[in-house]
Amino acid sequence: MYELYIQMRDSIKNEETQKATIRQQTKYEFEKAMLIQEQEENEKQRILNEKLKRRDNLQYSIVLICLLVIGVLVAMLGRLSLPVRMAEGIIFFSFLILFEFLLVLADPYIENWSGGAPGFKLLFNAGIAALIFPLHSLFESKLKGRLVKKN
Question: How many distinct structural domains can be found in the chain?
Answer without folding.
Answer: 1
